[in-house]
Amino acid sequence: MTKVFDYAEVSKHNTPESCWVILYGNVYDVTDFIAHHPGGSKIILQLAGTDATEEYDPIHPPGILEENLKPEAKLGTINPDTLPSTEKSPAEESPEESGPPDLESLLNLDEIEEVATKQISRKAWAYYYSAGDDLLSKAYNNTVYRQILLRPRVFVDCTKCDTSTSFLGHKVDLPIYVSPAAMARLAHPDGEHGIAQACATYGAMQIISNNASMTPEQIVANAAPGQVFGWQLYVQTERAKSEAQLARIAKLPVIKFICLTLDAPVPGKREDDERSKNIGSNLPVRSAVQDGGSTSQTSSDPKTPAPKPSGIGQSLFAGTAADLTWKTTLPWLAKHTDLPIVLKGLQTHEDAYLASLYTPQVKGIILSNHGGRALDTAPPAVHTLLEIRKYCPEVLNRIEVWVDGGIKRGTDVVKALCLGARGVGIGRGALFGLGAGGKEGVARVLEILKAETETCMRLLGVEKVEELGMQYINTRTVERDIYDGPAGLERPTLWAKAKAKL
Amino acid sequence: MTKVFDYAEVSKHNTPESCWVILYGNVYDVTDFIAHHPGGSKIILQLAGTDATEEYDPIHPPGILEENLKPEAKLGTINPDTLPSTEKSPAEESPEESGPPDLESLLNLDEIEEVATKQISRKAWAYYYSAGDDLLSKAYNNTVYRQILLRPRVFVDCTKCDTSTSFLGHKVDLPIYVSPAAMARLAHPDGEHGIAQACATYGAMQIISNNASMTPEQIVANAAPGQVFGWQLYVQTERAKSEAQLARIAKLPVIKFICLTLDAPVPGKREDDERSKNIGSNLPVRSAVQDGGSTSQTSSDPKTPAPKPSGIGQSLFAGTAADLTWKTTLPWLAKHTDLPIVLKGLQTHEDAYLASLYTPQVKGIILSNHGGRALDTAPPAVHTLLEIRKYCPEVLNRIEVWVDGGIKRGTDVVKALCLGARGVGIGRGALFGLGAGGKEGVARVLEILKAETETCMRLLGVEKVEELGMQYINTRTVERDIYDGPAGLERPTLWAKAKAKL
Amino acid sequence: MTKVFDYAEVSKHNTPESCWVILYGNVYDVTDFIAHHPGGSKIILQLAGTDATEEYDPIHPPGILEENLKPEAKLGTINPDTLPSTEKSPAEESPEESGPPDLESLLNLDEIEEVATKQISRKAWAYYYSAGDDLLSKAYNNTVYRQILLRPRVFVDCTKCDTSTSFLGHKVDLPIYVSPAAMARLAHPDGEHGIAQACATYGAMQIISNNASMTPEQIVANAAPGQVFGWQLYVQTERAKSEAQLARIAKLPVIKFICLTLDAPVPGKREDDERSKNIGSNLPVRSAVQDGGSTSQTSSDPKTPAPKPSGIGQSLFAGTAADLTWKTTLPWLAKHTDLPIVLKGLQTHEDAYLASLYTPQVKGIILSNHGGRALDTAPPAVHTLLEIRKYCPEVLNRIEVWVDGGIKRGTDVVKALCLGARGVGIGRGALFGLGAGGKEGVARVLEILKAETETCMRLLGVEKVEELGMQYINTRTVERDIYDGPAGLERPTLWAKAKAKL
Amino acid sequence: MTKVFDYAEVSKHNTPESCWVILYGNVYDVTDFIAHHPGGSKIILQLAGTDATEEYDPIHPPGILEENLKPEAKLGTINPDTLPSTEKSPAEESPEESGPPDLESLLNLDEIEEVATKQISRKAWAYYYSAGDDLLSKAYNNTVYRQILLRPRVFVDCTKCDTSTSFLGHKVDLPIYVSPAAMARLAHPDGEHGIAQACATYGAMQIISNNASMTPEQIVANAAPGQVFGWQLYVQTERAKSEAQLARIAKLPVIKFICLTLDAPVPGKREDDERSKNIGSNLPVRSAVQDGGSTSQTSSDPKTPAPKPSGIGQSLFAGTAADLTWKTTLPWLAKHTDLPIVLKGLQTHEDAYLASLYTPQVKGIILSNHGGRALDTAPPAVHTLLEIRKYCPEVLNRIEVWVDGGIKRGTDVVKALCLGARGVGIGRGALFGLGAGGKEGVARVLEILKAETETCMRLLGVEKVEELGMQYINTRTVERDIYDGPAGLERPTLWAKAKAKL
């Protein structure tokens, strides 16, 4: 017999000593959970005694509630007639209700971002748009592609054009994949599953975020035949949690590899995101397959407490381990998964070289500065690619090298491939597509990029992606900015040392 | 006995099943033609049952109607008294009627573009102004000239200055020619023939566009003694059509060469032009000596239909062949014309070198990125010229090298000539001149460029164009950006292979 | 028996012949002092016959009045009831009284400067903000850091991060110190002592300005255990005054070194500061431990009088010696202080090398262009660091090298340390922090920089500051701009000469 | 007995057949002179039958009227009572009458230009401000100095600073001279004589323009003891006129050299100046010691008349010879003057080298692109200096090298001297000074530049201008842009040829 509560009763329990919330029509006593909430206690207390469904839903995957609360925490149900009528803040809740946008009329990714920016909440925008410090790396990620000139050849039959390729041996129709981007339901209820549906239409690969707002099972549901997924792992301080996640992923055969993220062991400083915490109510941010734990960013000096984590980006870091190393992490991972590993977030040729020594466990690397969201003035992937070509080109033969960051045009895709990348990831592009039009918006993003990529290949006189190479691009203006400091000059010694350490 | 129709009767035939249109006072049944219209069926259907003359006229050369419709398609004439009075949309149709501009007061090409932009329709502007993607190559085409410094010599008698030169042995008064620019009547009723008249006044060469809005015969009518023309060929998928065009051109002795365009085998992505399709009525775009055929830009993947062609630029590509090659196309061309060939759209030294192996059939090349309208971030002609000078300077002796793109000043003309170009083409400049003042506007453009070129030559201390050379320019800032990748470094091998293939 | 004056009586004495002023309720006859006022006579005469306390107070340290006036100059006290009620100019005096800013909401140094700019007087802003001529060096000081890319390493345990280091053997918690910035009380009554308190909280070093608006004794009062101070010396033309200052400093054991400033022997041209003299009343500017003397900037040509000193910056230079040399000044200094010397304002590798020959007296150098306030287009410290690395890297082993100028982010701090700097100074940052929120504002500045520095170190994979090095940064774009003229090329000869001169 | 005319009578003679004008109260019949007016007949005819004094006066030196008209052309005087009352166009004639500016408050040359721009007529502004085509060289002339960094040395006694130097052996107090800038009375009635008075105050040299608005005798009247002048020569097509001018100059012993201008044998395209012809009435422009003759800029092609000369700049070119050569002009000049020759307008190291072969007749050269007014994208003097240093540094020892163009700051002056220039010229700076405040305005310009130069020298640690050298500047960013084409690479051969030709 479920007990039915009146709202007046629930609303009295709004203190740390007795804290109730209403979720999906049920009434929960979360008093004991307050201290363990990865997003912090403050956020829960702000919603104590109220119906928190609207704030809770878009950022928590289903099932997470049951995993974290004891059965007796569920006290009963709410009498819906006693709920107060909600008044939406017009600025925050109903941005521009000018009807669904005409996706056909959006001709490029900038226009899609522009539409999405108007459609989604300020908080979602801040989380997606933000990047480290002064956004210099975010900007350079894109402009570095503009510095590269193309070299079209003429008198080449270009009636046919084939954008298909393979990732780790799995055939895909596009050299473009969707990067592990968190919290997709903030942009649109279609969420990560909507991205998966768009990817199915275009034969594109998707890497599922460790902080997805839907469960992996939901995301890969009804995958198309041959559809390829990867799954992103942020190793948790409590390793058992990660191990449980890996076991869960192992049951989903469409997930073909683990993408271990290394470029953000601690969160970058994303001021736009931090500022958004002051807008509207604080959202209790929670990720999909992750179970709390305390933040690793403790100040080294007890006198000076570090600024409190704030913004969605900071909250997502709760529990993430900062103590990963070549020596300890890869062997541990080998024990808990048979899937091949792709290391994400390499930014120097030294690390690319090191990674290439870990075959066959490591089958690929993603050159990434985390979309400029981690360390500002970190190098764009184009730099790291050129570094590799200069100092250790053999890496490109040993493992697959993927890149992300700054891709806005098909010409960007083609340039990355000419430089030696096997594929390119889009993160914000997919999220803004989702924000602009749900799964159809993501499909429009892929449609545009595919068409631009084909036009570029044809005008270069190239039929298949494997034909693309350095003879089709002029990288002079970028090459003169590539690192040539000690690590590059003394590499024979360094390489010898690296191998000896294995 | 011609039948006379009332407008009420015609206007009933506005469906795919029965589609009539009024053109020049005649009534046509175009039902059977809808599916064959190169500009697409949608455009015809929008005008079905109405008087389409105003939309049809400025972009279709005379005679094209008769060529495409069977005699029985002409049903009769319209009773003019039954026509509805037209109401022009003021924004689109009567831009700024502040009287004809004072051409003398326009001092440079930017000012002429500014005036033309106000005078011509939004649709015409979009077609002329647009370029690929983000317009980076279009902008760089011009700014790269600004990066080059001049080196004036003093104490040189500069009382005389002679801008005359020759193209393929034909004397001209200017090293400047009008590039094959399509659809001139969109800018002004004087159209391509107006350009020809202005060229006659200044002794300048003109290359007639394959997509001109007047017939070649109209354009070259009343040519001045010694006036020189070329004719641009876009090879059609249905080769017989191109062969017929070549035969027709052979009858016009003032046309001295065939300019085979290679830099746009598929259309670039010109978003300004694509956007303009949504402005006002859709124009049924049709080119002068071209007879339909289906677009070659078919998607390689049936699941993902390519975005539909739109904008004038896209429509013009209908029927254009994308399967041209050195091996097949030049021999085919040799069978159908005795005129010398100029290859337009080369963007790499490799292709320039290859072209130079095809003398004597190929007598010239035009370094061009199609005014930035094909592939964005393609190199400007200045880059390709410097590449040729670096890797295969002998090309400059074997064939004539012309350039286009970005020319706005006499100093730009002189710099191109110093770099080794024999002549420079202007495209948008001529069209905007036409838009600003008809044939007098084009003449003003040539007058300005001629005067600026003379002033520049005199201040350099140069009397004749053949004296211009690398000692008169400082190209340091551009030279360090020139391609030096594998194709350049391994050129001896490449050249050997290229010759072996012949 | 103190005589009590009415305001009416005092106000009659407002001429050079008889000049009285009211300060802190007392009436002084300053007629004899007018000619000796370092800030010029004009300023005193403007305030003659009035209560000058408000203008005098924020820029004169306590005790300075008594030091400069004879006892008999104090005539008596003012009857406060006779004073006119003051009317503040709203624009100048009450800038924005929107309450104290929420320091937590200010996320970076730019935002703090923005808030401070609104809080402080226009005159204070002009003095802090201003720099030489066109502010080119000031801007470049910052942007040069943005030109340097970071090279984050992955798979490095970054749970711990330690920003502590030492300056001249004294342990500090931060590699960041507060530069000798003058006139802090213009920004906030907390003044230089407030800066000291903030430094105590974060274990940061502070260098006390020679032109502080508080006495050294006040500033170091209640220093925290282990807190480290330096004291800046501008050598006075009347050396005896400097000698007296050094003797006074010797009594303060928390002051660990003398920072001899060399980069501004004559004042730069700070136009913003000069313009501010025309705003509101002229302030009689006076520094803390400095006793007048005439300006050394005399024109070499009696026909052409140099523009009069104006602005706070100019006034502070009164009495500063311009005749310092390696040969004479260091030996003189050795006679009057046992403290180690840090030379501030070196801008070439030649001078850095020379300084390194003067160990052990000279223990450190500060590469500085005086915040861009002395000579415009002088090189930023990053240039000088790279010059040293190129031409005389041994300097970095012989003496400590500190830098200042342009630091706005933790990444800037880390980059300077990677280049070989032992520490970085912030000047305007601390003053704007003071302006934004007094000592708490300075603390917020240090808190932000510490947190940003830690985030940067962790994301690079670095635990301790001594691990930072050139392998963590890419300086290609800066390196190609580094001086390589004769002084660099002929350095072996130059070095030999330099040593021979010793 | 002078005849007295009524205005009504005069105003009837307003046709080419009978053209009278009133000047300074006299009535002249200028019918016969119309065809010979260097500024063109149109301008006279616009003023025919009216009182032309206001238009005539500021641009014609005294005496020019009598030189050009026969005595009988003076018909009599006007009855002043019959003159119509004049109505000034407020926009053109009374710009901003906010009283004389406070020159002391103007802190730099930009501020002086800003004030002058408001004070002077639009026509005068257009003439001074304008430069060739897109003003690229004008802008680069200045920004190239900003690309050069200074290298201040410390621990150098800088109590003394001496800016004196010598030009061609004549002592001057400043390394700054006033360039030959035409039409000074357009800016202010003080005219070129006002400039001379300001130069006397600061011991600066002045080069008198060939197109001055006052006679040379007026300009040098009451010269200070030791004051130094040069005189600019534009050789006239009618050589006899130039010979007469040289003879006249020979009678003025304060004029120490002839500055032969070579950088503008034909006028550049100054669009701002050309546009100004349409503002207000057309001024009959006339230069000081120049007597008409026809323009040499004849079109090479009778079909295409060159655009008519317009704007003040174009008018001044009337009669200027374009046929000067090393072989013919210098020997001719030797016959007509004993004064040393300074060649102005060299822009390449080749020409600098050639000039150095013509010692002792040629004693100096001025590297100049005519203030960017001749050929746009011509190199700034800094480029030519660096070219000389690279390819033929011996030139700097053989002859004096002066530079002009772009000088706005004392740091610019110092940089030019470090590069090897003996002096720097200011043109627009002096004219805008005149416009801002007459002779006091020019003095303020010199005062500012002198003070800034001294501050810069002191902060560099330099006492005398001859100590300045390449060790004080970092020119890396400019050096990589310096010409290194064939003329540089093949210079040994070129030099040999050049000497052989002598």
TrEMBL record, chains A, B, C, D:
<dbReference type="InterPro" id="IPR000262">
    <property type="entry name" value="FMN-dep_DH"/>
</dbReference>
<dbReference type="InterPro" id="IPR001199">
    <property type="entry name" value="Cyt_B5-like_heme/steroid-bd"/>
</dbReference>
<keyword id="KW-0479">Metal-binding</keyword>
<dbReference type="GO" id="GO:0005758">
    <property type="term" value="C:mitochondrial intermembrane space"/>
</dbReference>
<feature type="region of interest" description="Disordered">
    <location>
        <begin position="75"/>
        <end position="104"/>
    </location>
</feature>
<comment type="similarity">
    <text>In the C-terminal section; belongs to the FMN-dependent alpha-hydroxy acid dehydrogenase family.</text>
</comment>
<keyword id="KW-0408">Iron</keyword>
<comment type="subunit">
    <text>Homotetramer.</text>
</comment>
<keyword id="KW-0288">FMN</keyword>
<dbReference type="GO" id="GO:0046872">
    <property type="term" value="F:metal ion binding"/>
</dbReference>
<dbReference type="InterPro" id="IPR036400">
    <property type="entry name" value="Cyt_B5-like_heme/steroid_sf"/>
</dbReference>
<dbReference type="InterPro" id="IPR037396">
    <property type="entry name" value="FMN_HAD"/>
</dbReference>
<dbReference type="InterPro" id="IPR013785">
    <property type="entry name" value="Aldolase_TIM"/>
</dbReference>
<feature type="domain" description="FMN hydroxy acid dehydrogenase">
    <location>
        <begin position="101"/>
        <end position="478"/>
    </location>
</feature>
<dbReference type="InterPro" id="IPR018506">
    <property type="entry name" value="Cyt_B5_heme-BS"/>
</dbReference>
<dbReference type="GO" id="GO:0004460">
    <property type="term" value="F:L-lactate dehydrogenase (cytochrome) activity"/>
</dbReference>
<feature type="compositionally biased region" description="Polar residues">
    <location>
        <begin position="292"/>
        <end position="302"/>
    </location>
</feature>
<comment type="similarity">
    <text>In the N-terminal section; belongs to the cytochrome b5 family.</text>
</comment>
<dbReference type="Pfam" id="PF01070">
    <property type="entry name" value="FMN_dh"/>
</dbReference>
<protein>
    <recommendedName>
        <fullName>L-lactate dehydrogenase (cytochrome)</fullName>
        <ecNumber>1.1.2.3</ecNumber>
    </recommendedName>
</protein>
<feature type="region of interest" description="Disordered">
    <location>
        <begin position="269"/>
        <end position="312"/>
    </location>
</feature>
<keyword id="KW-0349">Heme</keyword>
<dbReference type="GO" id="GO:0020037">
    <property type="term" value="F:heme binding"/>
</dbReference>
<dbReference type="InterPro" id="IPR037458">
    <property type="entry name" value="L-MDH/L-LDH_FMN-bd"/>
</dbReference>
<keyword id="KW-0285">Flavoprotein</keyword>
<keyword id="KW-0496">Mitochondrion</keyword>
<dbReference type="Pfam" id="PF00173">
    <property type="entry name" value="Cyt-b5"/>
</dbReference>
<keyword id="KW-0560">Oxidoreductase</keyword>
<feature type="domain" description="Cytochrome b5 heme-binding">
    <location>
        <begin position="2"/>
        <end position="79"/>
    </location>
</feature>
